[in-house]
């Protein structure tokens, strides 16, 4: 890992925050911008993460999560048949569409999992592509689209030649070994007026920070300030940034909101928000 804070480039005001974490590494915090991260060699961190994802993440952690969501997934399938749309996907789309104009709508989903978001955006007229580290998920996505739209690999290592109007990451950015280097590299894959959109856990919220460090394989835990500084220092103009929360968490109310196409998210203070949204474009040269 970097020996300085990758967000604000400070080598001062960095202190040990917690001796142990989910990934069994000590966590350090930059008091200047609020970023929590590990001090560990990049290759060692990559090796540690690769071993975990291959042995545990998709076979155990995500399987348990899918089991918990089994009933909800059945409801979602029924809702799709009656032409309702998932709340989070609609919310993201409504933010993105304001910044995409013209006939070109090339969309890259990084860490696309089983392709749910890709499918949604394809139905909205986007020409979608995906990058996914899990081989089984990659096969599922390509079967879903009946053609090769998803590449298997780590985005930090995959060579991407195409340019896109939207580059999209939903709860993926916090898993990258060096998100600062990724931001600088991926700029080359944005069209002139292309945008990058991402959602990450909001770790100004103490409950979210605890979950990020102790219950998930997150390498970075971001606050609003650290996200802003990271994007600005990486050559981006921020179009939108904020902390957001769900308004309702009751499944019956959420079902009704989906049925009537209503919003379930509100912007809130950094300490109360559950997630951070960033929408940005590369600065004019």
Structure, explained:
By secondary structure, the protein is an alpha/beta fold. It has one domain: Vaccinia Virus protein VP39 (Rossmann fold, 3-Layer(aba) Sandwich), CATH 3.40.50.150. The protein contains 9 helices and 11 strands. The strands form 2 sheets. The chain has an 8-stranded mixed β-sheet, with helices on both faces. The longest helix has 27 residues, at 42-68. The two termini are 29 Å apart.
Oligomeric description of these chains? single chain
Q: Strand arrangement, largest sheet?
A: 6-5-4-7-8-11-9-10
- Counting DSSP E segments of at least 2 residues, the number of strands comes to 11
How many discrete domains?
A: 1
CATH topology: Rossmann fold
Helix and strand run:
EEEHHHEHEHEEHEHHEHEE
CATH superfamily: Vaccinia Virus protein VP39
Structural class: alpha/beta
CATH architecture call: 3-Layer(aba) Sandwich
Main sheet properties:
8 strands, mixed
